[in-house]
Specification:
Layout: E1 2-6, H1 11-22, E2 26-31, E3 41-43, H2 52-57, E4 64-67, H3 74-79, H4 81-102, E5 106-111, H5 133-146, E6 151-156, E7 158-160, H6 172-181, E8 186-189, E9 193-194, E10 197-198, H7 199-211, E11 216-219, E12 225-226, H8 227-237, E13 244-247, H9 253-256, H10 274-286
Parallel strand pairs: 1-2, 1-4, 2-3, 4-5, 5-6, 6-11, 7-10, 8-13
Antiparallel strand pairs: 9-12
Bound molecules: NADP nicotinamide-adenine-dinucleotide phosphate.
NADP nicotinamide-adenine-dinucleotide phosphate binds next to helix 1 and strand 5.
């Protein structure tokens, strides 16, 4: 199959591109600032023209799209709301419209941030409430994908990936590995929950959903963990020197725009096991 991945040089996009390519699918990408040398790619600045995809990509032979490109820095989105709505919302509308014009499926990657984090255990049917511009811009993006019959929305939280790109921020996994290497203590919230996965689970799920034409909204999650307990598990699986210490989710500007109990549940997909996810990541990284 021919898969178009927007944001191919982002953490998730790059990892998905590698997985699909390793399974002999043809990968085509779009990038903006980080030039992609690994796959045939097009430079498209989604901030410039909302109908760019139709113009630049109209002749591309593509079976489905995975839309990864986004403003993902929550603080930046809060400081520059217009930018986050342009990229996360308006550009998503344009890419959905491109998918519609080709009558092909589109997968949109979304986030646990669409919930207020008051209770956790959110399913696909739980009411959303955005605490930040990032979350709201992603929710608006979701609405365009939802309105398309071949749209798939995947909500998740990443813990780390097989390939880690230096120009992007550290994942929790890489942060802990780095802290162990430099023997620096780090503080992880023991009262903030999440249910993280890696890009491998996203890849597997996309393959299955596209093959079975199962469109709609899905939560991709592991069982509930605190950030601290997940950190301890990372140390155990990766056999790292202990550096993580428990801390409390603060009450300040940081926490105001982030959900506290943001672990997801799913009505449609089984939960993944975090220890297995980490063991897979460790063995996949060892092969690199
Ligand atoms: N990171 C998380 O914690 C998280 C959690 C849940 C869901 N998600 C979702 O998963 C998706 C992928 O996340 P990620 O972690 O891979 O993000 P990332 O590493 O921050 O990558 C973001 C990508 O968006 C592209 N992009 C940003 N501005 C652009 C613009 N003006 N024009 C074109 N492309 C632009 C970047 O391209 P260049 O680098 O080439 O400029 C980059 O490839 C996003 O939709 C995100 O909302 C992420």
């Amino acid at each position: 199959m021919n898969v178009l991945i927007t944001g191919i040089m982002g953490q998730v996009g790059f990892n998905l591109a590698n997985f699909f390519s390793e399974q002999s699918h043809n990968v085509i990408g779009t990038y903006n600032q980080q030039v992609c040398l690994n796959f045939p790619s097009h430079k498209i600045d989604l901030n410039k023209l909302t109908d760019t995809p139709r113009n630049s990509l109209k002749d591309i032979d593509v079976d489905f799209i995975i839309h990864c490109a986004a403003i993902t820095d929550v603080n930046l989105a809060q400081k520059k709301p217009n930018l986050s709505y342009k990229i996360n919302t308006d550009a998503t509308q344009a890419i959905v419209s491109f998918a519609k014009s080709k009558n092909i499926p589109i997968v949109y990657l979304s986030t646990d941030f669409v919930f207020n984090g008051f209770s956790g255990n959110y399913t696909e049917n739980s009411p959303t409430e955005a605490l930040s511009h990032y979350a709201l811009s992603k929710l608006y993006g979701e609405s365009f994908v939802k309105s398309y019959q071949k749209g798939i929305i995947l909500r998740f939280t990443p813990i780390g990936h097989v390939n880690s790109l230096n120009h992007q921020g550290h994942s929790l996994l890489d942060w802990i590995i780095q802290s162990a290497l430099h023997q620096q203590k780090i503080q992880l919230f023991r009262d903030k929950t999440f249910s993280p996965i890696s890009s491998y689970e996203i890849f597997q799920t996309i393959l299955k959903l596209i093959k079975n034409q199962q469109y709609g909204l899905y939560h991709l999650a592991s069982q509930e963990n605190s950030i601290y307990s997940a950190g301890k598990l990372i140390q155990e699986v990766f056999q790292l020197k202990p550096t993580v210490e428990p801390s409390i989710f603060p009450q300040n500007d940081y926490s105001k725009i982030r959900p506290k109990y943001s672990h997801l549940n799913s009505k449609y997909l089984p939960l993944f096991d975090l220890k297995t996810i980490l063991k897979n990541l460790k063995s996949q990284r060892a092969l690199k």
